[in-house]
């Protein structure tokens, strides 16, 4: 690096700027103990642009002010895994940006960190200062103070209305295809999308002022809608969070009640029957004494045994003979597993239908066909998907099933029997990959559009908030 004839003396805090990030003023903590400089970023999202990997992120440039948000986008130049004091590893992206202090400007590496959200928004590390600066820890703001009027000029406008909505995706793994697509589709339609990891949300139960918080203490008080994609294993906590957002008058899609209902397989099948929807004849019993009668109930072997906690086809077993059925049922019972027994729809020939329902309409349907020698059509069990034209009866059945559970978005699985279509199950977090790939439809975009419609957000009004 070129040596400057005279090195600039700076103090332990300084105002600086990142013109190419749209940050005309940000206060930095000067920390020669840190190698790399970092900026406190949130809503960090990786995306592809013209073959390059980029990251978008948001910065609250001013300390103790979460209302002012600057959104930035840069190519990713590196990735570092950092282990926090609590032992959780996090991947942090590194970007390049031009740093301006006083009248000097040069490019530095900047790590996108998730640090204490109320403290300094930026740390200036030794690598960035090397050859240019000397630090006098006894002093502050050698490069000048920034008045609140100036800050107001810089950021005042940003406090005003955003054009899009702010939509959070409440889920567990940001990298999943479906989650990536939802975030992308929301951004594409002009909204601010935020990924919230269910396990990092917490809440204040309060009758008057219920609050939802996110790791590090940020308060989630400016959301218009939350898209809930809750894994079966964290249904309990995920639904509690969804209820919290509901008590704050935030639209949840799907809502907590409908998810809770759809996760309870017995209850949801009962709700289906109550709405006049046909399902394969199904039995449920607790005691092994009743196994024989249970088998009779569904018309004998061959039959299907399903674990109530199963998913993606795991825990669905075909018992071809009565003996096999008895052994499987009793073996599962001995393991204290909850199961149901179901008539085997042989004529379906290893095929089922997946109908994607949004806001009372089937927007796409695929047929899934089991791999040779397999009866389960799940993609996770090697099944293949293809576009299919469904009958009006099947369409009605899918819509009715979704309504019966109160879901706004659902993946409805239907099996074609000799007596017409039968409902297998309704998923409240249907995957997008298989259905988007097979149909070429922008299902994620349709999900966002349904939220826009529900909240009466209109593109023409994009200068104003919808509320
Ligand atoms: N009664 C049945 N007769 C014939 N085939 C069935 C029957 N029930 C299920 N199958 C086949 O097995 C597959 C998996 O069954 P199901 O959808 O009930 O469980 P799952 O996919 O594991 O559950 P979840 O989707 O809740 O995770 C179905 O997609 C279908 O191909
Ligand atoms: Mg299924
Ligand atoms: Mg399912």
From TrEMBL:
InterPro entries: Asp_endopeptidase, ATP-grasp, ATP-grasp_RimK-type, ATP_grasp_subdomain_1, Peptidase_aspartic_dom_sf, RimK, Rimk_N, Rp_bS6_RimK/Lys_biosynth_LsyX. SUPFAM superfamilies: Acid proteases, Glutathione synthetase ATP-binding domain-like. GO terms for molecular function: ATP binding; metal ion binding; ribosomal S6-glutamic acid ligase activity. Pfam families: RimK (PF08443), Rimk_N (PF18030), Zn_protease (PF05618). It comes from the Bacteria. Mg(2+) 2 binds at residues 425, 427. It comes from Gimesia algae. Mn(2+) 1 binds at residues 413, 425. Keywords: ATP-binding, Ligase, Magnesium, Manganese, Metal-binding, Nucleotide-binding, Protein biosynthesis. Binds 2 magnesium or manganese ions per subunit. PROSITE patterns: ATP_GRASP. It is an enzyme of class 6 (ligase). Its cofactor is Mn(2+); Mg(2+). GO terms for biological process: SOS response; translation. ATP binds at residues 306, 343-344, 352, 376-378. The keyword Lipoprotein does not apply. Mn(2+) 2 binds at residues 425, 427. GO terms for cellular component: cytoplasm. Residues 269-452 form the ATP-grasp domain. In the C-terminal section; belongs to the RimK family. Its EC number is 6.3.2.-. This is Probable alpha-L-glutamate ligase.
């Amino acid at each position: 690096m070129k040596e400057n004839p005279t090195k600039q003396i700076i103090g332990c805090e300084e105002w600086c700027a990142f013109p190419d990030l749209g940050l005309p003023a940000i206060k930095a903590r000067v920390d020669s103990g840190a190698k790399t400089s970092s900026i406190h970023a949130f809503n960090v999202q990786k995306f592809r642009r013209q073959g390059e990997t980029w990251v978008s992120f948001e910065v609250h440039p001013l300390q103790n002010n979460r209302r002012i948000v600057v959104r930035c986008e840069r190519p990713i130049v590196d990735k570092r895994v950092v282990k926090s004091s609590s032992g959780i590893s996090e991947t942090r992206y590194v970007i390049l940006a031009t740093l301006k202090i006083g009248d000097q400007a040069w490019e530095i590496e900047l790590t996108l960190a998730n640090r204490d959200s109320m403290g300094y928004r930026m740390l200036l590390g030794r690598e960035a200062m090397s050859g240019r600066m000397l630090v006098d820890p006894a002093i502050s703001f050698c490069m000048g103070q920034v008045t609140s009027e100036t800050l107001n000029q810089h950021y005042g406008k940003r406090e005003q209305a955003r054009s899009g909505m702010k939509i959070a995706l409440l889920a567990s793994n940001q990298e999943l295809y479906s989650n990536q697509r939802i975030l992308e589709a929301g951004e594409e339609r002009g909204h601010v999308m935020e990924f919230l990891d269910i396990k990092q949300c917490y809440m204040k139960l309060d009758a008057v002022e219920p609050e939802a918080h996110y790791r590090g203490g940020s308060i989630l008080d400016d959301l218009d809608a939350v898209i809930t994609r809750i894994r079966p294993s964290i249904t309990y906590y995920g639904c509690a969070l969804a209820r919290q957002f509901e008590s704050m008058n935030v639209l949840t899609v799907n809502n907590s009640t409908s998810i809770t209902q759809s996760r309870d397989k017995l209850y949801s099948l009962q709700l289906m029957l109550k709405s006049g929807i046909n399902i394969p004849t199904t039995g449920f019993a607790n005691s092994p004494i009743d196994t024989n009668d249970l088998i009779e109930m569904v018309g004998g072997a061959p039959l299907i045994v399903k674990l109530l906690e199963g998913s993606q086809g795991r825990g669905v077993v075909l018992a071809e003979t009565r003996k096999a059925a008895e052994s499987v049922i009793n073996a599962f019972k001995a393991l204290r597993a909850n199961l149901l027994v179901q008539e085997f729809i042989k004529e379906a020939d290893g095929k089922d239908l997946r109908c994607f329902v949004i806001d009372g309409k089937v927007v796409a349907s695929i047929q899934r066909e089991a791999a040779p020698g397999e009866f389960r059509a799940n993609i996770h069990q090697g099944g293949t998907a293809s576009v299919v034209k469904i009958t009006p009866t099947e369409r009605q059945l899918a819509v009715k099933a979704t309504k019966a559970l109160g879901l706004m978005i659902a993946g409805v699985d239907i099996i074609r029997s000799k007596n017409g279509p039968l409902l297998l199950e309704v998923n409240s977090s249907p995957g997008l990959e298989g259905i988007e790939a097979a149909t070429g439809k922008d299902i994620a975009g349709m999900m966002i559009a349904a939220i826009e419609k529900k909240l009466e957000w209109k593109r023409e009004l994009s200068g104003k908030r919808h509320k």
